[in-house]
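The data are passed on as follows:
___
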Amino acid sequence: MVVSNSMSSSSKIFRQRTGLRFRTSLGFALLAFVLSMTLAVLTFFLARAYLIPIREAAARREAQANAALIDGLIAGASDNLAGVLEVFSQEIDSEIVVVIDGAAIASSVSVGLTSVPSRVRLEVESGNSATQSTEDSGRSIYVVGEPLVAAGGQYYELFSFRELNRTLSNLFLISLVAASLTTVAGAGVGFLVSRRIMRPLRTVSQAAAHIADGDLATRLPLSGDRDLDPLIAAFNEMSTSLERRIERELRFSSEVSHELRTPLTAISNSIAMIEARKSEMSDESIVALRILSVQVANMQRLVLDLLELARLELSSPSSALEPLDLVHFIAVVIARREQIPTLESSAPALWAIGDRERIERVISNLLDNADRYAGGAQAIRLWREGERVMFAVDDAGPGIDRFERGLIFDRFSRGSAPIMQHTDHRATGLGLALVREHLVLMDGTIEVSVSPEGGARFVVGLPAVRDN
């Protein structure tokens, strides 16, 4: 059980560290290697099993013919046996050992009667032909023995299969080279096949990314492939269902918020009429009226924020984008506020692409957030960073815990920082969510860090106007 879990863990780590394309290429390469090596080994052994018996049969025929010829030559010149063997051995490639009257004469000093296996000698001495493969001085030889009928002796011929073995070795080496080339070719084929297989997956992944970015109208065209079209059709059906569901939810939210405006307006007007006659009311009634007035005002702001958020989520990327000098624009926006933060810029003018109304809303919400939680913004700093113009709203408040920095842009998230601005009005928890939605529609970004003053820093990035 432990071994199985360990192997499963190792397999999981391997899949995590390698991509599907790499694993597919590796699989093709291993398959090509196994098949080519199997073919190489089979080719070698089949060739060896076929060629060696043929060579042995040819050696036996040659030895029988040579034995008959030697038998006749010795019978005619028995007094010059050594000379006969010397002349005869020059005409053949093999080596000869002849035994006459118990004396052995060899055609070469490198061989002798000891080179002949005892089994072959016994068979030939008994008057029978015999063959055997053996090793002599580290080389493979094939020994053929024939009785000499006329001369009354034995004839042994030793054949070396060195050339045949060299041919088989070269064949095996060529097979190994071919196996290596086949493995490389298999890896290349695997890479091409995996790339073709991954292409529709990449298309689906890109479409899913577009949907995640808010483009709910993204659909995939049918490819005409009967295996892929069901997947594409299911993806398109899922996208359509998701788009309809989100539109229904957003429409419901927008309609509910819109319908709430009428009774809230009526209640607010009624409260205003009652407040006009506040002098006729008791102290308890005045306190109740003030609480009611504050809660209705909070409800009105919440409904307005919900309506704005619903409109943003149903909106496409902003079409009112234009070049703006953020230094001048932000100076104009903050000049309308009671508490004006310091404005610092790395250049007299920094031009960005944005929507005037959305940028003003972003700045106002960030300044309102600083007023509510940090006693007001201390400074707004602007600079150019690559292809973006950045501006940061810095405060000297308690800051934002790093664990909450990814949550404060969620709807109705207020964080754990206490409200420092003394007011009866309650925060809706939608201000920073609206900031993020406005920036998304302008291809903008926002991050939270620590300001030089020790509080929170909200850093906004907008696309910069390209320099000509």
Remarks:
- The chain is about 55% helix and 15% strand.
- The two ends are 67 Å apart (CA to CA).
